[in-house]
Automatic annotation (TrEMBL):
<feature type="binding site">
    <location>
        <position position="76"/>
    </location>
    <ligand>
        <name>a divalent metal cation</name>
    </ligand>
</feature>
<feature type="transmembrane region" description="Helical">
    <location>
        <begin position="56"/>
        <end position="75"/>
    </location>
</feature>
<dbReference type="GO" id="GO:0005886">
    <property type="term" value="C:plasma membrane"/>
</dbReference>
<keyword id="KW-0808">Transferase</keyword>
<keyword id="KW-0547">Nucleotide-binding</keyword>
<feature type="binding site">
    <location>
        <position position="28"/>
    </location>
    <ligand>
        <name>a divalent metal cation</name>
    </ligand>
</feature>
<comment type="similarity">
    <text>Belongs to the bacterial diacylglycerol kinase family.</text>
</comment>
<keyword id="KW-0594">Phospholipid biosynthesis</keyword>
<feature type="transmembrane region" description="Helical">
    <location>
        <begin position="96"/>
        <end position="121"/>
    </location>
</feature>
<keyword id="KW-1208">Phospholipid metabolism</keyword>
<dbReference type="Pfam" id="PF01219">
    <property type="entry name" value="DAGK_prokar"/>
</dbReference>
<dbReference type="InterPro" id="IPR000829">
    <property type="entry name" value="DAGK"/>
</dbReference>
<dbReference type="GO" id="GO:0046872">
    <property type="term" value="F:metal ion binding"/>
</dbReference>
<dbReference type="InterPro" id="IPR033717">
    <property type="entry name" value="UDPK"/>
</dbReference>
<dbReference type="GO" id="GO:0016301">
    <property type="term" value="F:kinase activity"/>
</dbReference>
<keyword id="KW-0460">Magnesium</keyword>
<feature type="binding site">
    <location>
        <position position="76"/>
    </location>
    <ligand>
        <name>ATP</name>
    </ligand>
</feature>
Length: 124
C-alpha cells in the first residue's frame, strides 16, 4: 500500500470531492433528510418570493448543513478506520462531530423561523 499520488489535477480533485458528496447522499440517512428538507425550503422560498438577503441566509444554511454533515461522515469513517473497539476518544470524536452538526441544525431552524414565520403569519 503506497501513499496516494499527491499530484492530482484540479479536475480530478474536484471529481473526488463530487464522488464524496454522491457517496454521502447515497449512504447517509441524514443527508437524504437534509436533501428533502432543502427541496421543501427552496420551494417555500420561491413560493413566498423571499428577498435577496433572505435567500443568502437560506443558501448559507443549506450549504453549511450539507458541508457539516459530509465532514461528520468523514470523521465517523476515520474513527471506524482507527478502531472498531470501544474507545472513549472514539466516542468523544464522534459525539463532538455530531454536536457540531446539531449546533448548526439548531441555527438553521432559528434562521428558517425568522425568515418564514412572518410570511406564514401573513397568510392568515
Ligand atoms: N469505537 C467507538 N468507541 C466508543 N464509542 C463509539 C465508537 N463508535 C461509536 N461510538 C458511539 O456510539 C454511538 C453511535 O455511533 P455510530 O457510529 O453508530 O454513529 P451515529 O451517531 O449513530 O451516527 P450515524 O447514524 O450518522 O451513523 C455514538 O455515541 C458514538 O460516539
Amino acid at each position: 500500500m503506497g501513499s496516494p499520488d499527491k499530484s492530482n489535477s484540479f479536475i480530478s480533485s474536484l471529481s473526488f470531492a463530487f464522488s464524496g458528496i454522491a457517496m454521502a447522499l447515497k449512504m447517509e440517512r441524514n443527508m437524504r433528510f437534509h436533501f428533502i428538507s432543502s427541496i421543501i425550503v427552496v420551494g417555500m422560498s420561491c413560493y413566498f418570493s423571499i428577498t435577496k438577503l433572505e435567500w443568502l441566509f437560506i443558501l448559507f444554511a443549506i450549504g453549511g448543513m450539507f458541508a457539516l454533515e459530509v465532514m461528520n461522515s468523514a470523521i465517523e469513517r476515520v474513527v471506524d478506520l482507527v478502531t472498531s473497539d470501544y474507545h472513549p476518544l472514539a466516542k468523544q470524536a464522534k459525539d463532538l462531530a455530531a454536536g457540531a452538526v446539531l449546533i448548526y441544525a439548531a441555527l438553521t431552524i432559528v434562521v428558517g423561523m425568522i425568515i418564514f414565520l412572518p410570511y406564514v403569519i401573513k397568510l392568515f
